[in-house]
Structures are given as C-alpha cells and as structure tokens.
Amino acid sequence: MKKIYILWLRQIKRYMRSKSRIIGSLAQPLLFLLALGYGFGSVFQKAGEGSYIDFLVPGIIGMGIIFTAVFTGIEIIWDRQFGFLKEIMVAPMSRVNIMIGRTLGGATVATIQGTVVFLLSLILGFHPVSWLGIIPAIIIMFLIAILFTAMGTMIASLLDDMQGFQLIMNFLIMPLFFLSGALFPLEGLPKGLAIVARLDPLSYGVDALRSILTGVHFYGVGLDITVLVGFTMVFLGLGSFFFKKIQI
Amino acid sequence: MIKVQNLTKKYGAFTAVDDISFDVGSGEIFAFLGPNGAGKSTTIKMLTTLVHPTSGTLAIDGHDPVRHPEQVRRTFGIVFQDPSLDDELTAWENMEFHGVLYDVPDALRRERIEQLLDFVDLSDRKDSLVKEFSGGMKRRLEIARGLLHHPKIIFLDEPTLGLDPQTRNHMWEYLKKLNESEGTTIFFTTHYMEEADKIAQRIAIIDHGKIIAVGTSADLQSQTGTKSLEEAFLALTGRTIRDEAASSKDMMRNMGKLWRR
C-alpha cells in the first residue's frame, strides 16, 4: 500500500511543480469554451436547444480530463528516456501495483484538472442544475480519468520513444474527443457517426457528466457508468499485460 | 551468489553477449572489465531482470531472474551507468522514494538518508530539485541512493565515472565496510584499472560479448606476461578504439525540455 502511495505522491508532486503544464493544459479547454461556447451560443439557442455553454461545459471538462490523463499515462516514455523507469522496474514491487500506483496518480491529476475547468466554467456563466451534483460529478471525472490514464499507460508500454506521440494525438485522442458528443448533441446524428460515438468511451463519460450537471442525458447514467467501468477494466488489464513486458 | 551459464543476448543480428559463463561467490568483490560496447551493461541488465536473455541460464542467490523476478529484485541493489533520478523531485524525495520501494522501515530510512546525504556531501542541498544539480552531484546522489537499502548483492555499473577522487575513495571505503560487516557481494564494472586492481578480488575481462579471461589481477598479469593490470587488459583486448551505438536519447532529452518548460 505504502509503495502505491509513494508512486501516487510522486505524480502529484510532479504535477504541482510544473506550473507551465498546468496553465498550458487549461488554456486549450478554456479557448474551446470561449470560442465555441459564445460563438455558437446564439445558433444553438435559435435551434431550440437552450444554452450552449451549459451544454458544452461537461464536454469541455471531459476534454480537459482526456488530454491530461492520456498524457500522464504516456509519461512512462519520458521516465524511460530519462532513466527513472529503470529505478522503478528493478524495485521489488509487483508490476500490477506499479501500474495501479501510476494510474491512480495520473487519474488524480486529471481529475484536479477537470475540476479546475469546472470551476472556471462557473465564472464564465455555467449553471449546474443542482449543487448536490458536484460530488457525483467529481466521481465520474475520476472514473473517466482512470480509464484514459490506463489507456495512456498501455500505449506508452508499446512505444519506445516519443516519435509515435503525434500519431497518437492525431489519430486517437483528437477523434475520441471530437466524436464523443462533447461538442454536439448525439440525437439525430447520421448513422455512421452515431455508431462511432457509441463505440467511443468518452461519449459515455461526457453523457454522465451532462446528466449530473445539466439534467440532460442520452444514454442514461446507469449505462454510462457500466460502460466506463467496463472499458477501465479492459484497459487496466491490457495495460498491466503490456507493462509487464517492458524491457529496458 | 551469482551463477551464469552459456548466457547469450541477441538484438536482431547483433550479438551483444555471446555464450558467457561465470560464478561470483557470496561476499566476493568481482570486477567486470571491458572496452565500450563489450557487453558489460547488457549482462548487468540481464542479471537485474531488466532484459530477458536470448538463451542460457542465470541464478541470483538461487533464483532465476526470468521466472522469479520478484525474488531476485529483493536480493540486489544497483547503481546504473546512466542517470536514473527523477529530476522533478528533490534529493531527499528521490532517497525517500527508493527507501519506501525497498521496504526500509521509517526510522531507519530517515537515519540512513541523512547519514548518506551527509556522506556524499549533499545535506545542505537535500531540498533542492535534482534538475538544479550538476552532473557530479547527481552522480553522488545516485550512489547514495544505491547504498540506502543494504542488499545481499550490489551491482555498480561504472559507478565512479565523473566522480572526484575524494568521493570515489569515500564510496569504496563504504562499500568495503559493507562487504566486511554484512558480507555484501559486490559486482562492478569500471574503466579505471587501478580501481579494479585495488578493490576487486577477482576480475573478468569481456570483449565482443565474450569473456576472454577470469582471475585475480596477479593471474591476469602472469597469464599475459605483463607487469600491470592495464597492460594485461590491453594485451587481452587489443588497442583499437570502440564506438558505442548512438541512441536517440540526447534528442529526446532536448525535446523533453522543450515540452516541459
């Protein structure tokens, strides 16, 4: 337990110390929120869908989380390049526990990031339907964060260096975000897009957040949580499997 | 303590370690010498569970690093050739992290960390981030960390590279004491012949992935008809200069800096 804790603590300390990273990874969601939220606000309203900011905020929280989570997972590549991974890999600790410690650390960081996006959105005029929803919303954020940190770890275990990083960003993370219903309602989509959205784990995360924070849902929270937990299990399993195979 | 039989490691068509066998007894101080790229680090990586051998058998304190990595990891400590510190943590935090991973009890851990940081002359910098350290300071911290838990075997891969003579002497004194008081087996590689001569009880010389001679310094000298270990080493390995394969690491380091700051 103590070993998992120290791995977790390391991630938190590293995060708290990299101010530029915190600001950098907040700038993007904020930009989306401002540009899209205000830019499409009136069109959205005219279409009879209500406030676009309110619709958009859960999606942007999801965005903040997925980027941070995948990135903290992928940080293993950095540890490998800077040599610190060797220190961890020769330690008498089971690989599964290393994976758990890292994933919890990365997920905590991503959840903090998501919470900060949420707080900033309040300043920009977001109104949650109920303040009681905040705690469940943070739990959902954590669940999304674990899922994508585990995914990042899995990817990092398969890559040797950062060469593949751009590829992952453009062909995995961006599509996962854009096709998740973070930016648009999932009702009445063309068939192809609807199928893709159904396969995208982030779309369930965003749906759950939207349901809790704004009362609007598409799949329903029960299904959302089931799918999120399912995906998380799969990625944790695969992640541990590939992580065990790392040779330095 | 260490048993190696017909150990081979191939990377594609390149054979890094080619069918080597040797034994290191319990409580022995054993040096592994060889030119750059001879296979020293690869052998250490196989002994320390980081890389799986292509063929051959290994036993560390009776355990196989491939089949029972966790038991093996409990028996050794290692000081790596390349940096392996976390730059974003302080000196103290790096030590603390290591101590926790190796189950050193709280009180003893604190005591040893203080003592070791003092020993490598970093006490006054214990709360500074490692990224602010010079190369020599990082090296000293790395050594201190390797000595934090007292394992049965200590592997040191070119530990004294870039260390000043003071720290070097200090370190060997500490290791010798550990060897005498706790019977710690010490396995090290170095390019400093006088170091191997003075400290190691037995020496193996490896070149092109093969062990070409094993014995005491005196054995090696009489075997080659030379008067010093350095001459013996040169007689055995020749005088050509070897290149080590370049990696993408340096590029990555620069990219990492750009990304982070």
Q: Round the Cα radius of gyration of chain A to an integer and report it.
A: 18 Å
- Straight-line N-to-C gap of chain B: 46 Å
Name given to the CATH homologous superfamily of chain B: P-loop containing nucleotide triphosphate hydrolases
Radius of gyration of chain B: 19 Å
**Any idea what the shape of chain A is?**
globular
The domain tally of chain B reads: 1
Principal-axis shape of chain B: globular
Name the quaternary structure.
heterodimer
Average pLDDT level of chain B: 89
The parts of chain A where pLDDT drops under 50 for at least 5 residues are none
Helix content of chain A: over 70%
Structural description of this entry:
The complex is a heterodimer of chains A (248) and B (261). Chain A is mainly alpha-helical and 248 residues long. Chain A has one domain. In chain A, 78% of the residues lie in helices and 0% in strands. Chain A contains 11 helices and no strands. In chain A, helix 2 packs across helix 6 and helix 4 packs parallel to helix 7. The longest helix of chain A is centred in the N-terminal third of the chain and has 30 residues. With 261 residues, chain B is an alpha/beta fold. Chain B has a single domain, classed as P-loop containing nucleotide triphosphate hydrolases (Rossmann fold), CATH 3.40.50.300. Helix content of chain B is 41%, strand content 22%. Chain B has 10 helices and 9 strands. In chain B, the strands form 2 sheets. A 6-stranded mixed sheet of chain B has the order 5-6-7-3-8-9, with helices on both faces. In chain B, strands 2-1-4 form a 3-stranded antiparallel sheet, with helices on one face. In chain B, helix 3 packs across helix 4 and helix 8 packs across helix 9. The longest helix of chain B has 18 residues. The model of chain B has no long low-confidence stretch (mean pLDDT 89). Chains A and B meet through helix 1 and helix 5 of A and helix 2, helix 3 and helix 10 of B.
